[in-house]
Structure formats: C-alpha cells, structure tokens
Amino acid sequence: MTRRKAKIEEAVFKALMIGSTAAVLGSLALILGTVVWRGLPALNLDMVTQTPKGGYYLGKEGGILNAIVGSLYLAGGATALSLLASLPIALYLQVYAARSRWADVARLALDVLWGVPSIVYGAFGFIIMLWLGIRASLLAGIITLAILELPIMVRAMDEAIAMVPSALKEASYALGATRLETAVRVILRQTAPGLLTGVLLAFGRGIGDAASVLFTAGYTDRLPDSLLGPAASLPLAVFFQLGTPFPAVQDRAYASALVLTAIILALSLISRALAGRFARHVIR
Amino acid sequence: MQAIRTWLSPLIRARRSAPRQAGRRRRERWARRFMGALTLGTVLLVPLLAAALVVRAWPILAARPLSELLFSTDWHPLKGQFGFYPFIMGTLWVTAVAMIIAVPPSLLTAIFLAEYAPERLRAVAKPLIDLLAGIPSVVYGVWGMLTVVPAIERYIAPAVQGSLGAVPLFRSDNPTGYGVLAGGVVLAVMVFPSIIAVAEEVVRAVPDGLRDASLALGATRWQTVRNVVMRRAWPGVAAAVILGLSRALGETMAVLMVVGNMPRVPGSIFDAAYPLTALIANNYGEMMSIPLYDAALLAAALILLLIVVGFNIASRLVLIRLTPAK
Amino acid sequence: MYKPHIRIEDLKAWYGNGQALKGITADVPEHQITAIIGPSGCGKTTLLRCLNRLLEEAQATRVSGHVWLDGTDIYGPGVDVTEVRTRVGMLAPKPFPLPMSIYDNVAYGRRIHGLQRTLDKGNGRNLDRIVQHYLQAAGLWEEVKDRLHDPASGLSTGQQQRLCLARALAVEPEVLLCDEPTSALDPISAQGIEEQLLALKEGTTIVLVTHLLRQARRLADHIIFLWMGELVETGPAEQIFHSAQDERTRAYVAGNIG
Known about the structure:
The structure holds 3 protein chains of 3 kinds.
Chain A (H helix, E strand, L loop, with lengths): L1 H38 L5 H5 L15 H32 L4 H15 L2 H15 L5 H25 L3 H8 L5 H30 L2 H6 L17 H9 L4 H31 L7
Chain B lengths: L1 H14 L2 H46 L2 H6 L3 E2 L4 E2 L2 H32 L2 H16 L2 H28 L15 H25 L3 H9 L4 H30 L2 H6 L17 H8 L9 H30 L4
Antiparallel strand pairs in B: 1-2
Helix pairs in contact in B: 2-12, 4-7, 4-9, 5-7, 6-7, 7-9, 8-9, 9-12, 11-12
Chain C lengths: L3 E12 L2 E12 L3 E5 L6 H7 L10 E9 L2 E2 L7 H7 E4 L10 H11 L2 H6 L5 H12 L3 H4 L12 H13 L5 E5 L7 H14 L4 E5 L3 H7 L2 E6 L2 E7 H6 L4 H7 L5
Parallel strand pairs in C: 3-8, 3-9, 6-7, 7-8
Antiparallel strand pairs in C: 1-2, 1-4, 4-5, 9-10
Helix pairs in contact in C: 3-7, 5-7
C-alpha cells in the first residue's frame, strides 16, 4: 500500500517537474516569439542603416543606427577596459593566490559585485562623473559598464582557469617556468575558449544593460563622435520609443528590441562556435 | 647524440646566467604586485561603492531622521518631503509576488535537471536557461507590456475579481493590467535562471553515495530526493532562492515598464506600485534641479545596495560551504 | 665508489598535519639510475617532488631539511626555484603535454629560459635542430616529423609520454626525476621509455620512482628503500637486492610484503 502511495507521489512530482521545466523553457520561447512577432513587421533596412531624422519620434523617417553604433561602442569599450583588469585578476586568483583565504575574500567580493543592481552602478557612475567633472558621455558610460562587467568577466574566467589540471601547471613549473610564464604561455592557451566565453558573456550583459547607461551615457540622435559626447544605446532606444504615444514609434521600439535580442542570440551562438575552434590545443 | 649534448652544454650553462635570471625574477615580482594590486582594488570596490553613495546621500541623511525617510508616506520633493515608504513597499510587494511565482517551478526544474533529466536533455536545457539569463531587461519589459499586461487586464483580473474579489489582496479596481502582478510575473521569469542554475549545482553536489544508500533501501527516486538529497542540499537551495530574491530586488527597467509607477502603498496584487529602482531611474533627469533630490535618490540607491549586498553575502557564505572547491 | 650528485639530508615533509617523510638522509650518485622503491604510501613520490621543490606547489605542504645539489642547498635562503627546476627535470606518471603544438612543447623550456637565442645566432634553424635532436633522443622523431606543428593533444598516450621526455630533456637538466613514468603506458611504449632512460644515464643523473620491483631490477644502479615515510636502507642495487641488511628490505625485494 505505502509502496503504491510512493509510486503515485513520485509520478505526481515528476509530472510537476516536467511541467515546470516546460514552463521555464516555454517562457523563453514566448519572449523570443513575442519580440519576433511584434518586432519583425516594423523592421526594415532603414531602421538599421539610418539615424533618426527630424520628426522620427512622431513616426517620420529614420532609423536607430545611432543606438546600434552607440551600443557597440559602449559595450565594446567597456569590455576592452574590463578585460584589461579582469584577465590579470583571474590569473592572480588562480596562479598566485590559489586557494588562499585572500582569494576566497576576493571571490566573495566579486560575487557581491555581481549581485549589485545595475541601477546602483548607474548611480555610482553618476557620482564618478561628478568627480571627474564630465557630462553624460560615451566615456562615462564605458567606465560604468566596465565596472558592471568586471565581476562577470573575472568570475567566468576564474572558473575557466580553475578547470586547468594541476598536473599541467606542474609540468610547466617542473621545466623551471615561473608562475607568470606558466600563466601566459600555458594557462592562457589551455583556457582560451573559456576566457573568450567570459568576454562575450560580459559583452552581452554590457550591451543589454539600460539602467546603468541611463545616468551616464546620455542619448543622442547622432552617431557618437567623441568620447566626451553623449552616446545612444539600444536598450534606451527601446525604452524611449515606447514612451512616445504614437503606435508607429512603438512598433519601432519592438523592432529595436528585436535587433537587441538578435545581437544577444548571435553572441551566444558565436561563443559556442568559437569555443570549439579555439579548443585546438586544449589538453583533456 | 651524446656528442651534441656535451658540445651544447657549456653554451647553455653559460646562458643560464645571472642577468637573465634576474630579469625573469623581476618580471615575476612585478607581475605579482600588479595583479595583486588590481585584485585588491576590486575588493575595495564594494566599500567604495557604499562610501560614495553615503557621501552623496549625506545631505538628506543628516537633514531628516532615518525613521521619517523609511516610514513616511509623503513624497513631495518640491516641498522637501522625502518619504520612501511607498517605494520600499512597492519593491517588497513586487519582489514578494515574483518570488511566490518563481520559487516552486524553479526548484522543481532544478531538481528535475539535476536528478531526473537524461544527459542529452540537460545539454539542451542548460544553455537555453543561460540564454534566458542573458536576455536584456528592456526586452523582458517589452514582453511584459505586450503579453503579460494585456493578459492580466483582459483575463486574469476579471476572473479573479469574479471569484476572489471579496478578499482585499485580490480586489481589483485598477482598470489597466499595469501593477504588482505584472511586475511580479515578469520578475519571476527573470529570476528563474538565477535560482535554477545555483540550485541545480547545489543538488548535484550532494554525493552519490547518499543517493545510493537510500535507493538501495528500496526508496523511490522522489523519496530519495525529498528525504535525503534535499535534507543535505536545503541550505544551498535557500541560498539560491535568496540570490534570486536579491536579483529581483535590484531589477529596474523591466519592472519599471510594467508596474504602473504610482507612488502609494499597494493593497492588492492588481494595484499599481512604484519600486525604489523605478523611482531612481524615472527621476534622474530632474535630480540636480531640486534641492536634496539628488541626495534622496542616491539614498534610495544606498538602501537598495545595503539590502542586496546583505542578502548576497549571506547566501554566498552558505554556498561557499556547500559546493566543493573545484 | 660513486660521486654523489644529490645529497638528501634529514628531509622531512608534511601534508597538513600528517608527516609524509620522517627525516630522510640519502645520496643520489651522479650519472646513475637511482630507484626509490617501497610499498605504496611510503612517500616515494613525496620524496621525488622534494627534489625539484614541486611539493610546495600543492596545498598545505611543508618541507624541512636539506637537499644538496652539487653542493648547493636547494632549500637554502635566496634560492630561485625556477633555477632549481631548470637543473632538475621531471617526467610525470601521466603525460601532460602543454596546450600547444608538438614542436612548441619541446621548444617551450628553451624559450622561457631564453636558450634558443644563443644557439640561434646567425641561423634561425638551430631551434629546429634542437627540437629534432631531443625528439630523436626520446625516440619520437620518426613518428612526428611530418606533423610537428599539430597539437600535441592529438598524440597517443605513449607518444605523449615520449614527448614529455623530449620536453624535459630539451632544457638540458643535470638530473631527471621520473615518477612511475611507465604506469600509464602499454608494455611496448613502456619498454621504449626504459630504453631511453638507460641510454640517457651517461650524461644525466636519473631518479626513478617505481612500484615495479622488476623495473627497479632492470634499470637501477642504486636504491633508496622507504617504509612508511622512513628510510630503511640505501645503497648500490646489487647490495640491496642480494645482501640487504634490514629484514623489511629483504622481505620487500623477495616480494613477501608490499
């Protein structure tokens, strides 16, 4: 009798679990479907090749090239800046500070930074702007996004490097290599796919984040032309166009959201494809 | 062969000489210092964030008693009244609804992926869940406006009003779908991936020996999960939920787009709300033109930071103890 | 009599609170093969890894005592570990090729030590010659000469182990430490490695950790016999195998224990 009850209970929960998994994956499908369904009709060549012309926000001609280019500059600059710090930090955590208390503290700090809401980074970036005495600009946006991306990139790289077998590091040490030489010549090659995934992950977070650039990057209808001038961004393009009362402009917001989503999807696919290609020398 | 070796050796010994070794040692030393300094700088970023916000928020923290800031419902920046209570409650309402919706399916999914799903399904599902985590919050917002809000307005609110309308929590006098429930649904989907990823890892970290011991006694898989695996994994699962919670607390754009943004304390899941994050994002434009307004908004950011960092540290400390070092 | 290349003096090692070596004192004669033997868990590998200071790379380890390499204590103050490891090479039980091409694996040590510059003077092909030379010395040249720039990860396990041997030799170590170098190999590859080691001992001092008594009999000129972290007996192979002083040594070499 109890055996039968146990079997029934198992079946019920298994059904619930399968249902939940389907719901989670279904919500992804629903989101992508909605964005494609509403965004595709409004998407055309002008949208991605033109900057907004006069009256664009009333439904007249133009596109969101300013936001696409602005986002690429913002996220590209931030990712490059963040990489400069992230790679040394991740190597330090694994090669120099490996398994020490100090590394644990650093990892905890990075995890906490990962959890800090992006609006708080936006506020922090705003404070930095006041300090430096610069206006909302490409530079301020890049600095803010770089701080936001830093913990994401470091932790992704840190985990990739942690997978390096210790025997491989020892093989290099046993040949008389210093830690630096081992890090640069062996570990970087071995973990290239993982490091690249970390970089693309951070880039994706950077390009999709709105709350932090809201304060710091400003918005402009022109292409960004100077580090100290404002720069548009895709998430904000979506947000601002939705805020207008004209259905034609709102449709463009959906198209902009589709462009942003397509970029995110492409990044995810690229990182998968590249991970395989860069794995040529990886020792398993 | 031996001849070449003996012929080469003196050259090599000579070349392994002091200056080159000293150069390598110097590079090594400087690399360690440089990388260590960068790491230290990053660790100090946490207190630096808090300190910068405290400094900029100080004017209002000094001018108004904390109890007034936290518990007053009067929000009239032009009159110099800054009561955060409606916004704090807005954040709590939306987050609570989101967690109620998100936790059960997230945990069931995590258990399914860790314990039941065949390897091939896991290999497909995990990247998709990662993708869900990577979708930008404005896209979630767009989705919320296009599907969640109309669904609540047209179907859910009327249906609930018809059946449970007498209960204050479900009373609906908001004709639009924008409100706590819409924000909660969107946020719930946003926190799925963070809860699932961590919870799944924690469940998988339970040693197989424990599972085998239970299965060998004739327990079903589910009994094993419920009585053995979850007993071992629950602190980590709780930590996963808290991580999801802190993510929900800090989410800005998606929520802002669907909660209605009315600065009053919500009384029903259909009421509009105005979370702290939305408050900061919506008003950054005027913050420098009204006295104390910038300090007030940065104080709001500080409150948010302290709550989120507190939750984060607590759950990370639990997770560090539970997941094996790699 | 022999000339000692390495003198181990009162060497103690700990993993956490557990003591793995309890004061070892022994000699490693120059240009001979010294086998460290003993039952599993007796500290063979630990002792070996003390000789190039690799033990300290592992977590929570501590070493005290002296290891004199040609009269310098490698645990002395101011000693550069990378210098020690350049002079004392190592071959691990499982091959771990570095994540680069076959050629670069062999050239790796020379490049980091800047050795190729001397030999490259006026002739960029010298490094090629050196790589070829050591691949030949390890008996791998014929199999890989047409694909030197392929990833090393594509080689078979036996080939990888010979590549690791070539890589270690290319740094021109005075001493080569071999930690059960044939344990992951098939019998034919294993025999190949043994032959290389015998050929190498003319110019190189070799320290071999092995749990195979017969391998020790085939290769060793000198024996260090450990038992639960203690040195039981050390001396020429002849003496240990045929007229050991200690009861435990006699029992072990007879195959009665361990």
